[in-house]
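Schema walk-through. Below, the input block comes first and the output block second. Nothing else is stored per chain. Lengths vary across the set, and this one has 224 residues.
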Amino acid sequence: MDIHWDDFAAPVWLSVKISVITSIIVFVLAAAAAKAMAHRKFRGRSLVETVLLLPLVLPPTVIGFVLLVILGRRSWIGRVYETWTGQTILFTWGAAVLAAVVVAFPLAYRTIKAGFEEVDPDLEDAARAQGASELQVLRYVSLPLASRSLTAGYTLGFARGLGEFGATIMIAGNIPGRTQTIPTAIYAAADGGNMSLAWMWVCSIIAISAVMLMFVSRSSSSGN
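--- output ---
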């Protein structure tokens, strides 16, 4: 079976684009939530932690179903979005980003929070005592000391977004050239018996993941 470059490249570029956007959104949200939760005790903390980490243990199809209901044309979010833009959220590459963000967030949050929890609060208090603002404490004390966890959290968000399949196929579908990512393309190629093309996509996702792992390894080594 002939393999055309465009057929191979389209899911790769779309997956990379989705993963980059997903990793940035997840990193910002996870870092903000992790900083807010680290070293903080309050009533209901366990409940908040459970909600934040719940997508980590739920099957992706369950997440996809919930997102399908929340973002569908019958929901108020779906109706408002369609009124503003003239199109639906579902079955677009933006829907794939949303699915990846929800699935990837718990991994990044848990990793980054562990880093913030290792930061000595006395160091932050000492900076405040010297007149540093909260933003300065965050920039010059908290973030540098938690840099390894931040790097790992970003990488996990990217990798999870790159490999997301279950929730993505439920709310974004598998439309070639529009919403077909590497994982959904592999599934379609294998189901259709095009093993050569499936192997090409498998090798591409392995290569991208390996590069990300090398990046994390180098960052960790340079921090020692």
